[in-house]
Design brief:
Layout lengths: L12 E3 L2 E3 L5 E5 L6 H14 L3 E3 L17 H14 L2 E5 L3 H7 L5 E4 L7 H10 L3 E4 L6 H12 L6 E5 L17 H8 L4 E3 L1 H5 L5 H11 L3 E5 L17 H11 L7
Parallel strand pairs: 3-4, 3-10, 4-5, 5-6, 6-7, 7-8, 8-9, 9-10
Antiparallel strand pairs: 1-2
The chain binds phosphoenolpyruvate (PEP) and manganese (II) ion.
The site of phosphoenolpyruvate has 9 residues, from loops.
């Protein structure tokens, strides 16, 4: 179902008032974790001004360590919905369980399946059943074939609204948190009709590498970007070192405008 052979036209996925896969570059941004109502509202207002159309923010955080901040759960989803109502931005949140899906459908425009759950086939099927658009991140050690098979689990539930997200894979390199597999973009474009976006924040873990890789993603043909931003990255509860300030995000969007149509 994800194969281009049987569906030659590119899929355009509608998310809230925006689309992914059309001629506009879809920019999603926001904090790694939802921390407070004020934080997400402030972020939503800032990123919208710069050209983003989707607010991201994790309410359920699948952290590497169980002792790290795990997220505000349903409270966090409420804050995201409030920011959506105040700004008109669409909202995407990660879901990590069936209970999270049941809560999220009340608040969000798009469900995110994180890298660590890419092969949680039960979760993929449940996300598929909601009919909401699904952002499917590539697993840390997943081949492109594994990733497209994961998308089949969602689409085969009757939900064609899948967007793929390349977020870096595990390699021997340690200079960056993961290694951005930029070739995934043209490979997916060759094999599939699904839109693909790139997340240089989780791919690198390092703020200074986000802008050059965002430009690479556009050159490779990506349909969008996911970029983490925070009002004060130094105090962020998660992923501060890879989060941009609002000024840095605005500067990046302006640098991208000669190469891509932004909102
Ligand atoms: C995220 O986007 O919040 C996240 C946890 O990313 P990933 O699943 O790609 O690690
Ligand atoms: Mn993060």
């Amino acid at each position: 179902l994800a194969n281009k052979k049987f569906h030659p036209e590119p899929t355009i996925v509608k998310v809230g008032n925006t689309t992914i896969g059309g001629d506009e570059l879809c920019v999603m941004s926001g904090p790694c974790a939802v921390e407070s109502a004020h934080q997400v509202l402030e972020t939503a207002i800032a990123i919208k001004k710069s050209g983003a159309t989707i607010l991201r923010g994790g309410a359920y955080k699948p952290r590497t360590s169980p002792y790290s901040f795990q997220g505000l759960e349903e409270e966090g989803l409420k804050y995201m919905k409030e920011a959506r109502e105040a700004t008109g931005l669409a909202v995407v949140c990660e879901v990590t369980s069936l209970a999270a899906i049941e809560a999220a459908v009340k608040y969000v425009d798009m469900l995110q399946i994180g890298a660590r759950n890419m092969q949680n086939f039960y979760l993929l099927k449940e996300a598929g059943k909601t009919g909401l658009p699904v952002l499917l991140k590539r697993g840390l050690a997943a081949t492109i074939e594994d990733w497209l098979n994961a998308s089949e689990y969602i689409i085969s539930e009757g939900n064609p609204n899948v967007v793929l997200c390349e977020r870096g894979i595990r390699t021997f390199e340690t200079a960056t948190r993961n290694t951005l597999d930029i070739s995934a973009v043209p490979v997916i474009k060759h094999k599939s009709h699904l839109p693909i976006i790139v997340d240089p924040s989780h791919a690198t873990g390092v703020r200074r590498y986000i802008a050059p890789l965002a430009k690479c993603a556009i050159a490779a043909g990506a349909d969008g970007l996911m970029i983490e931003t925070h009002p004060d990255p130094a105090t962020a509860l998660s992923d501060g070192p890879q989060s941009l300030t609002f000024d840095q995000f605005d500067e990046l969007c302006n640098e991208l405008r000669p190469y891509a149509k932004l909102a």
